[in-house]
Amino acid sequence: MGATKRLAEMYVQSLAASHPHRTRFMAVRFGNVLGSSGSVITVFQKQIAEGGPVKVTHPDMARYFMTIPEACMLVLQSAAQGTGGEIFVLDMGQPVKIVSLARQMIELSGLRPDEDIHIEFIGLRPGEKLFEELTHKGENFAPTIHPKICRFVSQPADLAYIRKTLEQFRGKLDQLEPDQIKLALRDAIPEYTPYWPAAEKASPAEKVVPGV
Question: What average pLDDT does the segment 29-52 reach?
């Protein structure tokens, strides 16, 4: 899960704790939705229609997928049972290898993978993971009344601290280098481990984040 998404969860949770009798603030954590805007399905369809190649980052890349109706239903059911401050996590089933998905889509188009349409592996982008994580080590989850919905149990952060962090980001975001942003996120999110290029892994602590 991305660091910025986790920071958003922390803000939602702290907001709910500070206003327990007003709007019910909650978050739902899940993976990719098939056919949604920016979905890999749409990208692959376009690449197949153009004659290929279908571009996949890595042979072992795997992601969780859910259909639009299923995602909508579970998000609504999460909201219906929430009282405020919850972070719900949906059961996404088993992860799917992206290359297998690409091959299936080529075959469903009446074509042959590696013959009519080639698959090209383009490599991972900086910080990109092979396997998607919906949970982090040390997180505790409790069941809910729905078998495919769990609830993340945690202590909300102080709202004033989260707001101060976000204000500092907003005021200096255009002035910071990417590595400085990573360090600032690491300070705000204890479980976040930034990705450092191999040449920089030896001394990330030497970087300075001005005023964040």
Answer: 88
